[in-house]
From TrEMBL:
Organism this protein belongs to: Evansella vedderi
Domain annotation Metallo-beta-lactamase: ranges: 12-192
Keyword field: Hydrolase, Metal-binding, Zinc
Alphabetical list of InterPro entries matching this protein: MBL_Glyoxalase_II, Metallo-B-lactamas, RibonucZ/Hydroxyglut_hydro
Matches recorded under CDD domains: metallo-hydrolase-like_MBL-fold
Gene3D superfamilies named among the record's database cross-references: Ribonuclease Z/Hydroxyacylglutathione hydrolase-like (3.60.15.10)
Cofactors required: Zn(2+)
SUPFAM superfamilies xref list: Metallo-hydrolase/oxidoreductase
Protein name (database record): Glyoxylase-like metal-dependent hydrolase (Beta-lactamase superfamily II)
Signal sequence, start to end: none
C-alpha cells in the first residue's frame, strides 16, 4: 500500500490518499481544493473506492460531494455526527466569519462501533476517539504501523474542544486509552501539521505527559 498526504481546503487540512498497486484506494478527510485534488488523482490514475471521515468539521469535508460524485464512492462517518454534513452550524462552517457555509449530502454508511473495516484490500481498525467532536474516529493500519487520527492528537498538541460536542476530559481519555496504547513506532498522521509518532508524543507532548493537565 502507498499513501500520500495532501493539504486541502481553507485551513490546509491534511487529507490522505491510500492506494494499492492497482490504483484503487480510499481518501481520508477530503477538506477542499476539489479541482486540484481531482487533477492529482487523475494524474496518478487512482480510483477512489470510499471516503472515510475522521469527523465532520467543515475543514475536513469540503470536497466530499465532488469526490463522491466523481467516483461514486460511499462516505463513512460515525453515527453521532450523522446530521453534521448537512448542517453548517454543527460542522462549524456557520460559526466563523469569512467561512462559506458548507453542506453536503448525508453519509452513505454510519459507523456505529469499533472494529475492522476492509476496502479494496486495505484493512483498517476503527477506534472511537471522541472529545474533539462526539463522533471522532481514528483509522489504524497495524501492518503499516500508522494511525490516521484526525484532530485528536497532533505533534506537540491535542484537538480543540470548544466547538459543538467537544469535551476536554473525553478527549484526554481517548488519547490515553486508544492512541497511547499503540506501539511507540506508530506514525500519527493527523489533521493539521507534521507527522509524529506515538513514542515522540509520550515523551514531548505537554498536554498528555502530565504537564498540561
Amino acid at each position: 500500500m502507498k499513501w500520500k498526504q495532501l493539504p486541502l481546503g481553507p485551513l490546509q487540512t491534511n487529507g490522505y490518499i491510500l492506494y494499492n498497486d492497482n490504483g484503487s484506494g480510499v481518501i481520508i478527510d477530503p477538506g477542499g481544493n476539489d479541482k486540484q485534488l481531482l487533477s492529482w488523482l487523475k494524474e496518478k490514475d487512482i480510483t477512489i473506492l470510499a471516503i472515510l471521515l475522521t469527523h465532520a468539521h467543515f475543514d475536513h469535508i469540503g470536497a466530499v460531494d465532488t469526490v463522491r460524485t466523481t467516483f461514486n464512492a460511499p462516505v463513512y462517518l460515525h453515527k453521532k455526527e450523522a446530521h453534521w454534513l448537512t448542517d453548517p452550524q454543527l460542522n462549524g462552517s456557520g460559526l466563523f466569519q469569512g467561512i462559506e457555509p458548507i453542506s453536503t449530502k448525508k453519509a452513505d454508511h454510519l459507523i456505529s462501533a469499533e472494529g475492522p473495516l476492509e476496502i479494496g484490500g486495505i484493512e483498517f481498525q476503527i477506534f472511537e476517539t471522541p472529545g474533539h467532536s462526539p463522533g471522532s474516529v481514528s483509522f489504524y493500519l497495524p501492518e503499516e504501523s500508522i494511525v490516521f487520527s484526525g484532530d485528536v492528537l497532533f505533534r506537540g498538541g491535542v484537538g480543540r474542544t470548544d466547538l459543538p460536542g467537544g469535551d476536554e476530559d473525553t478527549l484526554i481519555n481517548s488519547i490515553h486509552n486508544k492512541m497511547l496504547s499503540l506501539p511507540d513506532e506508530t506514525i500519527v498522521a493527523n489533521g493539521h501539521g507534521p507527522l509524529t509518532t506515538i513514542g515522540e508524543e509520550k515523551e514531548t507532548n505537554p498536554f498528555i505527559n502530565g504537564f498540561g493537565w
